[in-house]
Here is the input.
Amino acid sequence: MDFHKEILEINCEKEARRISRFIRKQVLSMRKEGAVIGLSGGVDSAVSAEFCVRALGKEKTISLVLPEKDSNPVSEEFALKQAKKMGIRADIIDISPTLEGFGTYKKRDEAIQTIFPEYGPRYRMKMTLPPDLLERDSFNIYTLMIDDGQGNAKSARLNRENLWNIIAATDTKQRTRMMHLYYYAEKMNFLVCGTTNKTELVQGFFVKYGDGGVDIEPIAHLYKTQVYDLAEHLGVIPQILQRPASPDTYSFHVSDEELFFRIPFRTLDLLLYAWEKGVPIENAAGAMELTEDQVKRAFRDFAGKFRNSEHMRKLPATLLKSMRIGCR
Here is the structure.
């Protein structure tokens, strides 16, 4: 196939109409009356909400802003500005008390304290992967970084047990948000609109039964860079357009690239497309002005993440052979 740097360019208005039709069709087929969406202050939720408004109207689109004590304050600020720009209802629910009750922060902090005993309330934390995926062979081994609030930082590699403990605790944040979204959806007979893009979906950068627990995913066929193109076309507020993508789940700021992807999005999306479509390594390298070794490293990383997250994209396994039950 003819692979080139402009291959992900889209007709934004045509795509916007197509996605709006998809949302309307899903609402009708599920016999729902509208859509509820979580607004995070990031580009994916802003674009998805814009499509809901286009498809259903302002009165049939409700947004929830669901901060917690580790959230960046600008996330709530930007989410509310975006909701105001769209003219939709935005309810703010602080999920910190729910997380405190479950023990999210306590469980996470206990895992961190096995590495850094001094870690406490005044500290911030984040996890990162090695940043130079294209430049050298390396494993996806996480580093934990803490900061005491005075600019004194420490870091250490995470072993598997500590990593899993921190992730398990942190993922309860997304799952708590899912509960609130479905509470609103069910009491209003709305569906829950997801915000996962293709770059995230293919590699497993979402939480199963968290931000992945939704009724529809209107942008799951779009790469992150395409979402940004649509955001500009739809008039998403400039603060969101200019904001680096971040999961906003850690008290110490970390970008999506630092936490998971390890490659800037403009390069990442093109390489991911090439990997998905089976573009020969030498062709991808030539078009991207990269070495073949760099492309091989990216393709290996994509394959590993896709394989490890495959279960996240599937329905629960059952022994059912067919879901056709009863008479038509």
Notes: The chain has a mean pLDDT of 96. The chain has 13 helices and seven strands. Residues 160-188 form the longest helix (29 residues). The domain at 12-101+164-308 is CATH 3.40.50.620 (Rossmann fold).
